[in-house]
């Protein structure tokens, strides 16, 4: 892949395997399922049973669902043994999702994700959770960009140094894909003001993982929204050392009594 090539994924063998596996939800491709280590696959989606058997049960249930499964991965990249995919799903209903897979010896051995229902609407600036830049670049700046995002989450989202907010952006120009927030710092400020008036808090308690490739960086955090335990997956595009674009998926964490395994939502990402 050249720096000029426009693509939705930073290509390597593991990334290609993940994209194929996700597409298999739609196509039923059994070859792609072979990329999973059947003996060691650990599941962190709390609504799906553990192991390859749990994944199989979830797929089998689609046969009785009125809508056909659809999978369109819009961005994907690798970071060491991990692969991140951002996907437009119809999986038991339309959803926006992020998936993280961990590989050992060329096989998928662990999976985490964040999913939220999506009704096809656009945010106040006309953006969806999926559109925007898909070109990967600045591969030599991966670690620098990951450090920037880590510091932003700690300083601003966790609230340790909120006064540093403006230093992470190039003025008011950044593009926002959160379905409820308009572009720029003005849009973010307006959304937070609306939440405050409704006495709704968006809280980040812990940053679990930062994964990146070039100009794209994903941060996985744990917190609360409106008092409910929440998992935050935030994808950032960094340009010239500043945050230029943002996508996210928020998921309410189910109570432990409803979990289908005890692997936890974030275990293994620390």
CATH class of the largest domain: Alpha Beta
Estimated share of beta-strand residues: 25-35%
| SSE order, one letter for each helix or strand | HHEHEEEEHEHEEEE
At CATH level 3, the topology of the largest domain is Nuclear Transport Factor 2, Chain: A
How can the largest sheet be summarized? 5 strands, mixed
Number of strands: 10
Q: Please state the overall shape, judged from the principal axes of the Cα atoms.
A: globular
Mean pLDDT across the residues is 94
What structural category do the secondary elements indicate? alpha+beta
CATH architecture of the largest domain: Roll
SS element count, helices: 5
Give start-end ranges of low-pLDDT stretches. Answer: 1-6
Provide the gyration radius in Å.
18 Å
Strand order of the largest sheet: 1-5-4-3-2
* Helical content class: 10-25%
The tally of structural domains comes to: 2
Distance between the termini: 31 Å
Domain SnoaL-like: 19-111
Pfam family, one: SnoaL_2
Organism: Prevotella micans F0438
Protein name: SnoaL-like domain-containing protein
Please provide a written account of the structure.
There is one protein chain. The chain is 22% helix and 33% strand. With 270 residues, it is an alpha+beta fold. It folds into 2 domains: 13-121, Nuclear Transport Factor 2, Chain: A; 139-252, Roll (Nuclear Transport Factor 2, Chain: A), CATH 3.10.450. Strands 1-5-4-3-2 form a 5-stranded mixed sheet, covered by helices on one side. It has a 5-stranded mixed sheet with strand order 6-10-9-8-7, with helices on one face. The longest helix is centred in the middle third of the chain and has 16 residues, at 142-157. It is globular. The relative contact order is 0.16.
């Amino acid at each position: 892949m050249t720096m000029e090539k426009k693509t939705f994924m930073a290509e390597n063998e593991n990334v290609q395997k993940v994209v194929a596996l996700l597409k298999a939800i739609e196509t039923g491709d059994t070859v792609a399922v072979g990329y999973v280590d059947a003996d060691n696959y650990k599941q962190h989606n709390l609504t799906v049973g553990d192991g390859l058997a749990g994944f199989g049960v979830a797929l089998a249930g689609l046969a009785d669902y009125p809508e056909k499964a659809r999978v369109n991965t819009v961005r994907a990249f690798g970071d060491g043994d991990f692969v991140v995919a951002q996907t437009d799903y119809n999986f038991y209903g339309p959803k926006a999702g992020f998936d993280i897979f961990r590989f050992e010896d060329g096989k998928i051995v662990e999976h985490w994700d964040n999913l939220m229902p999506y009704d096809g609407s656009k945010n106040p600036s006309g953006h969806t959770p999926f559109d925007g830049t898909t070109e990967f670049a600045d591969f030599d700046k991966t670690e620098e960009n990951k450090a920037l995002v880590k510091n932003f989450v700690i300083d601003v989202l966790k609230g340790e140094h909120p006064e540093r907010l403006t230093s992470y952006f190039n003025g008011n120009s950044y593009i926002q894909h959160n379905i409820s927030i308009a572009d720029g710092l003005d849009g973010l400020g307006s959304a937070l003001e609306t939440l405050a008036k409704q006495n709704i808090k968006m809280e980040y308690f812990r940053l679990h993982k930062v994964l990146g490739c070039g100009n794209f960086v994903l941060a996985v955090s744990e917190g609360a929204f409106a008092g409910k335990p929440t998992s935050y997956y935030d994808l950032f595009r960094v340009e010239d050392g500043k945050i230029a674009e943002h996508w996210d998926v928020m998921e309410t964490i189910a109570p432990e009594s409803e979990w289908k395994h005890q692997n936890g939502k974030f275990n293994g990402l620390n």
